[in-house]
Amino acid sequence: MPTQRHYPKAPITEAIIDIRVELPEGTSVAALEKVHEGLETAYPTKKNRIVAEIRGQIGDRGAAAAARSTHDGYLFTSWDEKQVFQARLDGFTMSRLAPYESWEPLRNEAQRLWNVYRSVAKPTKVARLAVRYVNRLDLPLPVRDLKDYLRTVPEVSPDLPQNLAGYFMQLRIPQEDIQSLLLLSQAIIDPAKPGVASIVLDIDVFRVEELPTGEQGVWDFLEVLRNRKNQLFEACITDKARELFK
């Protein structure tokens, strides 16, 4: 893996620490609201987290679909709207929005809030650990070849026009040495400003099997995932892209 680097103009738009759990049977969403107690000043905004679910069914009379919404937890946003944490029936998530500072403040705040969530929700099992970083690369126009900036891009047949008006690519790449999986997503999005093409580079590295036990083991492995995320980011970009972040 390439050497990790520090970038003064890091393209990170959101950094995420996610811990999925199993809770005691009968735990209610209302019980999770207690997580907010004592945090009202730092995280004054509370919103219900609503998940939409669509179910399809095929029968003698054709296909039918039904949609329903489920309230599965809460989102709490900091006073400056740069940090958001979620307390859900299936876990805890901490997000830092741009401008991103560094790993240590994110990890420390996530650990502090996780301890609050844990004391209220009393999870019986950790089911998934993940570190995810969403990056926006603003590439100066004209972009003649995405390979000038990205080392993994869609390969278009030479018999087709080479201009791309848009694309979405997602790869699942095992990280066997740490028993984890990389979910790598790329897409063209609306430009952040005139004169650039904006590309999302989403790096989600996670583990769902043979997870560490104990609090120290959980946070030690999140450090492993964070280090791997940095290596994967470097593996995805070229030196020309690195120049944009200096």
Note down, in words, how this protein is organized.
With 246 residues, this protein is of the alpha+beta class. 21% of the residues lie in helices and 41% in strands. It has helices spanning 29-32, 103-121, 215-236, 239-244, and strands at 12-22, 45-59, 62-77, 83-88, 91-97, 125-140, 168-175, 180-189, 196-207. Strands 2-3-4-5-1-6-9-8-7 form a 9-stranded antiparallel β-sheet. The longest helix has 22 residues, at 215-236. The two termini are 21 Å apart.
What is this structure, in a nutshell?
With 246 residues, the protein is α+β, with helices and mostly antiparallel strands. It has helices spanning 29-32, 103-121, 215-236, 239-244, and strands spanning 12-22, 45-59, 62-77, 83-88, 91-97, 125-140, 168-175, 180-189, 196-207. The protein is globular and about 60 Å long.
Q: What's the arrangement of secondary structure elements?
A:
Layout: E1 12-22, H1 29-32, E2 45-59, E3 62-77, E4 83-88, E5 91-97, H2 103-121, E6 125-140, E7 168-175, E8 180-189, E9 196-207, H3 215-236, H4 239-244
Antiparallel strand pairs: 1-5, 1-6, 2-3, 3-4, 4-5, 6-9, 7-8, 8-9
